[in-house]
Amino acid sequence: MPSANTADALVLGAGIVGISVAVHLQQRGRATVLVDRRGAAEETSYGNAGLVQREGVYPYGFPHDFGALFRYSLNRTIDAHYHPTAIPRLAPFLWKYWHHSRPARHREIAGLYARLIEHCVTEHEALARDAGALELFRRTGWMKAFRTARERDKRFAEAERWHGEFGLNYKALGEKEIQAAEPHLAPVLCTGPIPGR
Domain limits at 94? Predict the structure, then answer.
C-alpha cells in the first residue's frame, strides 16, 4: 500500500466521487492514496440516500422569486440554515450564486452538467459489478409527490421539457397508480413524475 509520500495520486474525500476517482486511478496503474477524516461515504454521500441521479441536470439554483427569498430570510426552511453573522462573509459567494442561477445562465450550466452525468448510471453499474454489488441496484426510479395540482402540473411540464432537451425519461402517475405503488402515502398528496424510468 503506497504512502502519501510515494503515491502517484492523493484523493481527498472518500465519498462516492472520491472513491470512484481512486478506483479509476488504480485501474490506470496509479498508486493512489484515498484520505478522509471519517469512514468511507459517511458524510455528504451518506445523506444522498444512495441515489444515482441521471436526471439531476439542473443544479439547485438560488431563488429569484420574492416569496422564496422571504422564506429563506426567516431561516425556517429545511433547504438551508444560516447564521446571521456569517452573511457579510458569505455575501460575495451568494452574489455569484444568484448571478449564475439566472434562467439563461442556469440553462447553460444544465447543458454542461448533462454531458458530465450522461453516463453516470452505466459507470456506477460497472463499478458495482466489479465490486460484486450489482444486486444492490434497483432501476425503479424514484417518486416525487406534491400537495397542489398547480405544483404537480408545473413539474410535469418541467419533466417533459427535460425529456426533450436531455432525453430524460419519466412516467406521470395518476392517483390510483400512486396509491397502488405507495399505499401509505397520505391521499392529500398529488402525484408526480418518476424520473429515470
Answer: 54-138
pLDDT digits (tens, 9 = 90+) for 16-59: 899 999 999 999 999 999 999 999 889 888 887 788 888 888 88
Do residues 173 and 192 both lie within one domain?
A: yes
- Same domain? For 119 and 162 the reply is no
64 and 126 housed in the same domain? yes
Contacts for 148-155: CB closer than 8 Å, 24+ residues apart? 148/190, 149/190, 151/190, 152/190, 152/191, 152/192, 155/192, 155/193
